[in-house]
Amino acid sequence: MSGNGERLMVDKRERFVELAEKRVNRAIDDIRLIGNLSNRHNYEYTDADARKILAALDGEVRVLKRRFASGTPDNKPSFKL
Hints:
Blueprint lengths: L1 H35 L10 H24 L11
């Protein structure tokens, strides 16, 4: 019986590692793409726009930290400029 429980723990760990690597790498790629928006030769934006983007990202990182600290979900509405 304990062998089955150990396998379940390994399966959960493997699933966590697999999803964490995919999702974190995707988030890093997306953040880099957002950074490309800072090129004023290609885009026009206000300082207020930039502050809103940075505030939204900072806010989500704070939520992420709370979720890992508490182990509970915390959903927020999506971003709009």
